[in-house]
Design goal:
CATH topology of chain B: Beta-Lactamase
Structural class of chain B: alpha+beta
InterPro entries (chain A): AP3_complex_dsu, AP3D_dom_metazoa, ARM-like, ARM-type_fold, Clathrin/coatomer_adapt-like_N, Mu_AP3
Order of helices and strands of chain B: EEHEEEHHHEEH
Distance between the termini of chain A: 38 Å
CATH architecture of chain B: 2-Layer Sandwich
Number of strands of chain A: 15
Largest sheet of chain A: 6 strands, antiparallel
Membrane topology (chain A): Peripheral membrane protein
Protein name (chain A): AP-3 complex subunit delta-1
Family (chain A): Belongs to the adaptor complexes large subunit family.
Number of domains of chain B: 1
CATH class of chain B: Alpha Beta
Keywords (chain A): Acetylation, Coiled coil, Cytoplasm, Golgi apparatus, Membrane, Phosphoprotein, Protein transport, Repeat, Transport
Shape of chain A: elongated
Largest interface: A-B, 69 and 52 residues
Radius of gyration of chain B: 16 Å
Structural class of chain A: alpha+beta
Distance between the termini of chain B: 40 Å
Oligomer: heterodimer
Chain lengths: 1152, 149
C-alpha cells in the first residue's frame, strides 16, 4: 500500500499539471489541436490509474480543455470518481468539472445522487457548499426530487454559509421539481426574516424570482416585503424587492398607491443609479397598472421623466441607453409627458452609438402625432441618406414604415405624401426590406380607395423606371416593390393615364431577369391591363389600335413562356392562347372586350390576416378525423404516382363549379347577402368613399378639390415627399384660417356668453383634418368570426409549472420524498424504488467504465420491468394457474425478488446462467377445493406488525364464497381482527372465487418478539357451491413465521457498515454448509432474495451483506465461498435472532 | 437572475465560462461563438448593453478582457454591471492586482471565487469580505492536504 502511494506520487511528478498544460498550449500555437489531442491521450492514461490525486489532476486539465471547446463528456464517470474523493481538494475539482460539463442529457448523472446526499450532510461546511454549488449547475428533475428534502433541511443549517446556498438552490429545485414548492415554501418564507443578512437576501432573491413568474400566488407576502423595503438598506435586496412589487402591482392596484410614496422618496434620495433605475421602472409599472388620469400621480410621472432626462443627458452611454429604454415604457401610457422631450430624442438619433440611436427610434414610434409625423419622417429620411451601415439603414426603413402604418395609419393625414415616401424608399440600395415596402404599397392602395388614382400613377412611373430599381446585378430585395407596382397597375388599371405605355413597360425583355414570382405577377397583370385597353379602344371604336395591342401581346408573351419558373410559364402559355383566340375573333370583327374584362370583374376586398383563424369550428366537425380512411401502404405502392398526371375523374370535379348556372349563383349570392345583413358579427365594408364625396355636404368636399388641383398628378417624374410637407403646411394654414373665421363668427354670436375661448393658438391633433376624405376600408372578416383576439400562452414555459397556490394548507400527500428504506411503501410508488438502486451504483465507482455502461443498460431494462407491475398491481389475479406463478414474479409483493435478480447483474456476472425464477410464496395448505400460498412482509414503520399475503386459488369446479380465515392467537402473535370482534371470530376474505380463479388477501398480525420463529394454527372455512348444492368446507393450516420474515431488505453503505461492525455491540455466530455447487453469484442472489439481505460489498468470493429487522436489529453477514462450501459469519444485536436466522439460512443453502 | 453565464475572453479566446442553465455542449458552443462575434464587433464607445435573442447581454471590458453576462428581459442592467465589477474586484483582491495570466493559470480559482459570489445565477454574497473569507478558508482546507499528498 505504502509502496503504491510512493509510486503514485513519483508518477505524478512526471505528469503534466494544469500549469504545464496551459503553458504547453500557449507554446504550441501552430499545432494546438495536435498538441491537445496528445494531452487528451495522456489524460486518458492518467484516469486509468488508481491514485485519486492523479485522477483529480487529469480532471482539472479536462475542465480547462472543456472551456476551450473540447468534448469531455466521455470522462463523466471519472469526474464522479473525483467528486466522491474524500479530500476536499479533489472533491472541489470534481464538482467544478461536473458543474461545467454535466447537463440533463448526461446519463451518469443519476449515479451522483447518493454522493451528493452524502456531501450535503458532511460535517465540513465546505464539502456541503461545494456540493450545493455544483448541484445548482446540473440539477435534473430526478436529482431535484431525490434531494429536495435534504436541501430543505439545509435551509435550517446552523451555519449561514450553508443556509444561504441552500435557499438559493431551492429555486433551481422548484423549477425542476415543482411539487417541492408547497412543502418547502413555509421554510423559505421563514428565511425572509433570517438573522443573517446574506440568507435573508437569498430568500428575497428566490421569492422574487418565483413571484415574477406567477405573481398572484405571492400577493399575501406583500406586507412582509413592504416592511423589508422600508427597513432594508441593502441596495441589492432593495432592487429585488422593488422588482417584485413591480410584478405584484398589476394584480393589486391598492398596493401600487401605497408604493408610490416610498418609491418617490427613494428616487429623490438614492445615489445608486441601479436602484434609481429600478425605482423608476417600478413606478412606471405601478402607474401603468393604476387607472390613468389620476392627477396626483402626474407628479410622479413628471419626476420619472425628469430623472430619465438626466440619465439621457449623461455622458455615460449606458445611462443614456437605459434612460431611453425606460422612457419608451412611459411612452406607452403617458405619451404626452414624453413628447415634451422630443428634442432630446431627436438629438439621440445623431448619437455615435448605434444601439442608442435604435432606442431613440423606438421612442419616436410613440411620439408621432398627426401634427409632427411628416416632420419626424423627414428627419428620418435624411438619416436614411446619411446612414453608413446597411443594418442601421434597414432599421430606419422599417421604423419609418412602422411609424407611419401604426394603428391603421392613424397619423397619416396625406396618403399621397406617404406613397411618395414609399417610392423614395425604393431608391435605397441593398436593403433587405423590399417586401415591406411592397406590402405597404399594396395595403395602402387597396384599403385607401381615394388614393388609388395617385398610387397607380406613381406605380406606373416606377414600372417605367424598373431598370433603375432592378439595375444592380445582384438580386437585391428592392425589386420586390415591382411586384406591388405591377399588381396595383393591373388591378386598378381604370385609373391609368397611359395604359398602353405601362403595358409596354411591363412587357420589356428586361423583365425576364426578375425573380419568378414577380414575373408571374407581371404576366397576370399584363392581361388585366390588356383587358382595360381593349375595352377602352373598343368603346372608342378604334379597331386597329385594339388589334395592335393584341399583336403586341402575341409578340411579347413568348418570352415568358420560355421562363424556367413554372408559374410564369404556365400563366404565360394560358394567356398566350387566350390572346391568340382573341386575335382570331378580332379578325372576324367580333367585339371581345366585354368578355375579356369579365375575367377580372368584381373587386377584391382586403381580408383580415387572422380571419381564417377566427372562424370557430362548427359543432360536430372534427378536423383531425379522416374523411376517407388513408390507403394502406401496400395499395399506394401499386398505384402509379398521381401527382403529375391527374386522372379524368379529378378533372371533371374541377370543372363542376362553373356548371352551376347563373341564376343559381345569383340566388345564392342574394341569400348570402341576406344572411350577412342579419348577422350581427359580420363586419361590413364601409360604403365606397367615392360615393361619400357625392353625398357629403359642402365644406367636407372642399379639401378634395384642393388636392386635385395642387398635386402634380400629370407630372410623370418622381414626386419629392418634401413638396408635400410644404403643401401640407399650407393646407393646414388654410384650414386654420377657415376655422378661425368660423370661430370668429361664432364668437360674435355668443359674445355675451360665459364661454371663453383661449386666444392662444393651440393646434391639437384632432384639429387637423386629413387632406383626403380617406376611408380606410375595414378588412373583411369571415362570418361567425370570434371577436376575441386571444393569444395562446406558450405551453412550454418552464415557469408555468410553478404556478402553484401557496396559501392552501399542505396535504399529507405533498410531503417531500424522504429517502426511505425500500420496503416501506414500495408497491405504491414505483419511482421511489429508483433511489435504492442508485445508491447501490454509486457505491462502486471503481468499476471500469465499460462495465458501468452495461450496468446502465441493465438498469434501464430493469426500470422498465419495474414499471409493469405497478400497472398490473390493481388487477386481480384472475388468471389460470400457470400464468399466476409467472405473474407472481412480477407482481406487487415482489420487491425482494427484484433485488435478488438484480444483484447478479450488478456484480457484473452477466455471462452466468440466470437463476431460475424465484418466488417467495410458499405453500400454506391445499385440498381438492382450494390451494393457499403465503408470504410474510414486515415494514420498518411498524415495528410489531407483519402483513401476511395469502393467495387463494380455487382448484375445484365449485364456486367458493363466504371464506373466512381464523387463527389461534398465541401470546406472541395475534391476528388483527376488525374492531368489535372477539378473539375467536375469523376475518372474512373480501372476495369470492369462481372456479379456477385465484386472488390475494392480506392479513395483519401483531408480533411481540421477533427473535424466534413461530407457528400459528389456523383454519380457512368457506362454502363451496356447485350444481348439486352447497357444502360447508374447511381447510386447516399452519402459518409459519420465520425469523427471516421479520427482516426488511435495507441497503447499507460500506462505511456505515464498517462503523457498525466496529461498534462492537454485536454478537457473533457462524455456520458452514458443505456440498454447494451453485456459483457464488447465484448464491448471493438467493440469500438476498429468500432472506432479504442486500450486498454491501463483494470482493472475489467474499461478500458482506446487511439486513434489518422490523424492530431495528442490524444483521451483518460475511459470506465466504470455499471449494464446494460456504461459510456465513453473522453479527447481530440479538444473539437469538442471529442463530435462528442462520439456521434458516442453513436450510436454504443446503438446497443449493 | 443572471439566467445565463459569465464569461471572459480576449481576442475571441474564452478564459472562463459559467452557465446557470443546463445546455448541451453544442448549444453552448454555438451561443459562445455568436456572442464573441457580437461583443467583439462593438466599438469601444458603445454602451454596455445589447439585446440578443430574448436576452440582454451586459458586458464590460477590463484591459484586454471582456466580462459578459446574459440576463433576462426584466433584470436590471446596472446591477449586472455592478456584479461584473464586483467580481473583478474580488479577483483583484484575491490575486493581488489580477492580470489575464492569473486567470489563465489559476482558472479553477477564478471559478471558485465566482461560485462563492454567485450561485445558480443569483448573487449569494454581497459582502466582498465574506466571499474572500470563504475562499481563504476553503483554501486552507485544501493546502495541508496538498502538502500531505
Amino acid at each position: 500500500m505504502a509502496l503504491k502511494m510512493v509510486k503514485g506520487s513519483i508518477d505524478r511528478m512526471f505528469d503534466k499539471n494544469l500549469q504545464d498544460l496551459v503553458r504547453g498550449i500557449r507554446n504550441h500555437k501552430e499545432d494546438e489541436a495536435k498538441y491537445i489531442s496528445q494531452c487528451i491521450d495522456e489524460i486518458k492514461q492518467e484516469l486509468k490509474q488508481d491514485n485519486i490525486a492523479v485522477k483529480a489532476n487529469a480532471v482539472c486539465k479536462l475542465t480547462y480543455l472543456q472551456m476551450l471547446g473540447y468534448d469531455i463528456s466521455w470522462a463523466a464517470f471519472n469526474i464522479i470518481e473525483v467528486m466522491s474523493a474524500s479530500k476536499f481538494t479533489f472533491k472541489r475539482i470534481g464538482y467544478l468539472a461536473a458543474s461545467q460539463c454535466f447537463h440533463e442529457g448526461t446519463d451518469v448523472i443519476m449515479l451522483t445522487t447518493n454522493q451528493i446526499r452524502k456531501d450535503l450532510s458532511s460535517p465540513s461546511q465546505y464539502d456541503t457548499g461545494v456540493a450545493l454549488t455544483g448541484l445548482s449547475c446540473f440539477v435534473t428533475p430526478d436529482l431535484a426530487r431525490d434531494l429536495a428534502n435534504d436541501i430543505m433541511t439545509l435551509m435550517s443549517h446552523t451555519k449561514p454559509y450553508i443556509r444561504k446556498k441552500a435557499v438559493l438552490i431551492m429555486y433551481k429545485v422548484f423549477l425542476k421539481y415543482p411539487e417541492s414548492l408547497r412543502p418547502a415554501f413555509p421554510r423559505l418564507k421563514e428565511k425572509l426574516e433570517d438573522p443573517d443578512p446574506g440568507v435573508q437576501s437569498a430568500a428575497v432573491n428566490v421569492i422574487c424570482e418565483l413571484a415574477r413568474r406567477n405573481p398572484k400566488n405571492y400577493l399575501s407576502l406583500a406586507p412582509l416585503f413592504f416592511k423589508l423595503m422600508t427597513s432594508s438598506t441593502n441596495n441589492w435586496v432593495l432592487i429585488k424587492i422593488i422588482k417584485l412589487f413591480g410584478a405584484l402591482t398589476p394584480l393589486e392596484p391598492r398596493l401600487g398607491k401605497k408604493l408610490i410614496e416610498p418609491l418617490t422618496n427613494l428616487i429623490h434620495s438614492t445615489s445608486a443609479m441601479s436602484l434609481l433605475y429600478e425605482c423608476v421602472n417600478t413606478v412606471i409599472a405601478v402607474l401603468i397598472s393604476l387607472s390613468s388620469g389620476m392627477p396626483n400621480h402626474s407628479a410622479s410621472i413628471q419626476l420619472c421623466v425628469q430623472k430619465l432626462r438626466i440619465l439621457i443627458e449623461d455622458s455615460d452611454q449606458n445611462l443614456k441607453y437605459l434612460g431611453l429604454l425606460a422612457m419608451s415604457k412611459i411612452l406607452r401610457t403617458h405619451p404626452k409627458s414624453v413628447q415634451a422631450h422630443k428634442d432630446l430624442v431627436l438629438q439621440c438619433l445623431d448619437d455615435k452609438d448605434e444601439s442608442i440611436r435604435l432606442r431613440a427610434l423606438d421612442l419616436l414610434y410613440g411620439m408621432v402625432s398627426k401634427k409632427n409625423l411628416m416632420e419626424i419622417v423627414k428627419k428620418l429620411m435624411t438619416h436614411v441618406d446619411k446612414a453608413e451601415g446597411t443594418t442601421y439603414r434597414d432599421e430606419l426603413l422599417t421604423k419609418i414604415i412602422d411609424i407611419c402604418s401604426q394603428s391603421n395609419y392613424q397619423h397619416i393625414t396625406n396618403f399621397e405624401w406617404y406613397i411618395s415616401i414609399l417610392v423614395e424608399l425604393t431608391r435605397l440600395e441593398g436593403t433587405r426590406h423590399g417586401h415591406l415596402i411592397a406590402a405597404q404599397m399594396l395595403d395602402v392602395a387597396i384599403r385607401v380607395k381615394a388614393i388609388r388614382r395617385f398610387a397607380v400613377s406613381q406605380m406606373s412611373a416606377l414600372l417605367d423606371s424598373a431598370h433603375l430599381v432592378a439595375s444592380s446585378t445582384q438580386r437585391n430585395g428592392i425589386c420586390e416593390v415591382l411586384y406591388a407596382a405591377a399588381w396595383i397597375c393591373g388591378e386598378f388599371s381604370e385609373h391609368l393615364q397611359e395604359p398602353q405605355q405601362t403595358l409596354e413597360a411591363m412587357l420589356r425583355p428586361k423583365v425576364t431577369t426578375l425573380p419568378g414570382h414577380i414575373q408571374a405577377v407581371y404576366v397576370q397583370n399584363v392581361v388585366k391591363l390588356y383587358a382595360a385597353i381593349l375595352q377602352q379602344k373598343e368603346q372608342a371604336a378604334d379597331v386597329q389600335a385594339a388589334q395592335e395591342v393584341t399583336q403586341l401581346l402575341v409578340e411579347r408573351l413568348p418570352q415568358f413562356v420560355q421562363s424556367a419558373d413554372l408559374e410564369v410559364q404556365e400563366r404565360a402559355s394560358c394567356i398566350l392562347q387566350l390572346v391568340k383566340h382573341v386575335q382570331k375573333l378580332q379578325a372576324k370583327d367580333v367585339p371581345v372586350a366585354e368578355e375579356v374584362s369579365a375575367l377580372f370583374a368584381g373587386e377584391l376586398n382586403p381580408v383580415a390576416p387572422k380571419a381564417q383563424k377566427k372562424v370557430p369550428v362548427p359543432e360536430g366537425l372534427d378536423l383531425d378525423a379522416w374523411i376517407n380512411e388513408p390507403l394502406s401502404d401496400s395499395e399506394s405502392e401499386d398505384e402509379k404516382p398521381k401527382a403529375i398526371f391527374q386522372d379524368e375523374e379529378q378533372r371533371h370535379a374541377k370543372q363542376r363549379p362553373p356548371e352551376a348556372d347563373e341564376q343559381e349563383l345569383a340566388r345564392r349570392r342574394e341569400a348570402r347577402k341576406q344572411e350577412q345583413a342579419n348577422n350581427p358579427f359580420y363586419i361590413k365594408s364601409s360604403p365606397s368613399p367615392q360615393k361619400r364625396y357625392q353625398d357629403a355636404p359642402g365644406v367636407d368636399h372642399i379639401p378634395v378639390v384642393q388636392i386635385d388641383l395642387s398635386v402634380p398628378l400629370k407630372v410623370p417624374g418622381m414626386p419629392m415627399s418634401d413638396q408635400y410637407v410644404k403643401l401640407e403646411e399650407e393646407r393646414r394654414h388654410q384650414q386654420r384660417l377657415e376655422k378661425d373665421k368660423r370661430k370668429k363668427k361664432r364668437r360674435e354670436r355668443e359674445r355675451r356668453g360665459t364661454r371663453r375661448h383661449s386666444s392662444l393658438h393651440t393646434e391639437s391633433d384632432e384639429d387637423i383634418a386629413p387632406a383626403q376624405r380617406v376611408d380606410i376600408v375595414t378588412e373583411e372578416m369571415p362570418e361567425n368570426a370570434l371577436p376575441s383576439d386571444e393569444d395562446d400562452k406558450d405551453p412550454n414555459d418552464p415557469y408555468r409549472a410553478l404556478d402553484i397556490d401557496l396559501d392552501k394548507p399542505l396535504a399529507d400527500s405533498e410531503k417531500l420524498p424522504v429517502q426511505k428504506h425500500r420496503n416501506t411503501e414500495t408497491p405504491k410508488s414505483p419511482e421511489k424504488e429508483d433511489i435504492p438502486v442508485m445508491e447501490k451504483k454509486s457505491k462502486k465507482p471503481k468499476k471500469k467504465e465499460k462495465k458501468h455502461k452495461e450496468k446502465e443498460r441493465e438498469k434501464k431494462k430493469r426500470k422498465e420491468a419495474e414499471k409493469k407491475p405497478s400497472k398490473e398491481k390493481k388487477k386481480k389475479h384472475k388468471k389460470d394457474k400457470e400464468e399466476r406463478t409467472k405473474d407472481k414474479k412480477k407482481s406487487k409483493k415482489k420487491t425482494p425478488p427484484r433485488e435478488g435478480v438484480a444483484e447478479p447483474m450488478e456484480n457484473g456476472a452477466l455471462d452466468e446462467d440466470p437463476l431460475p425464477p424465484m418466488s417467495s410464496y410458499c405453500l400454506l395448505a391445499e385440498n381438492s377445493y382450494i390451494k393457499m400460498t403465503y408470504d410474510v412482509q414486515g415494514s420498518l414503520q411498524k415495528d410489531s406488525q407483519v402483513t401476511v399475503s395469502v393467495v387463494l386459488e380455487n382448484q375445484s369446479s365449485s364456486f367458493l364464497k363466504s371464506m373466512e380465515l381464523n387463527v389461534l392467537d398465541s401470546l406472541n402473535a395475534r391476528l388483527a381482527r376488525p374492531e368489535g370482534s372477539s378473539v375467536h371470530d375469523g376475518v372474512p376474505v373480501p372476495f369470492q372465487l369462481p372456479p379456477g380463479i385465484s386472488n390475494e388477501a392480506q392479513f395483519v398480525f401483531t408480533i411481540q418478539s421477533i427473535v424466534m420463529a413461530q407457528k400459528l394454527k389456523g383454519t380457512l372455512s368457506f362454502i363451496a357451491k356447485n350444481d348439486e348444492g352447497s357444502t360447508h368446507e374447511k381447510l386447516d393450516f399452519k402459518l409459519h413465521f420465520t425469523c427471516t420474515s421479520y427482516l426488511v431488505t435495507t441497503p447499507c453503505y460500506s462505511d456505515a457498515f464498517a462503523k457498525l461492525l466496529e461498534s462492537g455491540d454485536l454478537s457473533m455466530s457462524s455456520i458452514k454448509v458443505d456440498g454447494i455447487s451453485m456459483s457464488f453469484q447465484n448464491l448471493l442472489a438467493k440469500i438476498c432474495f429468500h432472506h432479504r439481505f442486500s450486498v454491501v460489498e463483494r470482493v472475489d468470493s467474499c461478500a458482506s451483506m446487511y439486513s434489518r429487522s422490523i424492530q431495528g436489529h442490524h444483521i451483518c453477514l460475511l459470506v465466504k465461498k470455499g471449494e464446494k462450501s460456504v461459510s456465513v459469519d453473522g453479527k447481530c444485536s440479538d444473539p437469538t435472532l442471529l442463530s435462528n436466522l442462520l439456521e434458516e439460512m442453513k436450510e436454504t443453502l443446503a438446497k443449493c | 437572475m443572471n439566467s445565463s453565464f459569465t464569461e471572459i475572453y480576449r481576442q475571441g479566446k474564452l478564459r472562463l465560462q459559467k452557465w446557470y442553465v443546463p445546455l448541451s455542449d453544442k448549444e453552448k458552443k454555438k451561443i459562445t461563438r455568436e456572442l464573441v462575434q457580437t461583443v467583439l464587433a462593438r466599438k469601444p464607445k458603445m454602451c454596455s448593453f445589447l439585446e440578443w435573442r430574448d436576452l440582454k447581454i451586459v458586458y464590460k471590458r477590463y484591459a484586454s478582457l471582456y466580462f459578459c453576462c446574459a440576463i433576462e428581459d426584466q433584470d436590471n442592467e446596472l446591477i449586472t454591471l455592478e456584479i461584473i465589477h464586483r467580481y473583478v474586484e474580488l479577483l483583484d483582491k484575491y490575486f493581488g492586482s489580477v492580470c489575464e495570466l492569473d486567470i489563465i493559470f489559476n482558472f479553477e480559482k477564478a471559478y471558485f471565487i465566482l461560485d462563492e459570489f454567485l450561485l445558480g445565477g443569483e448573487v449569494q454574497e454581497t459582502s466582498k469580505k465574506n466571499v474572500l473569507k470563504a475562499i481563504e478558508q476553503a483554501d486552507l482546507l485544501q493546502e495541508p492536504q496538498e502538502i500531505e499528498s
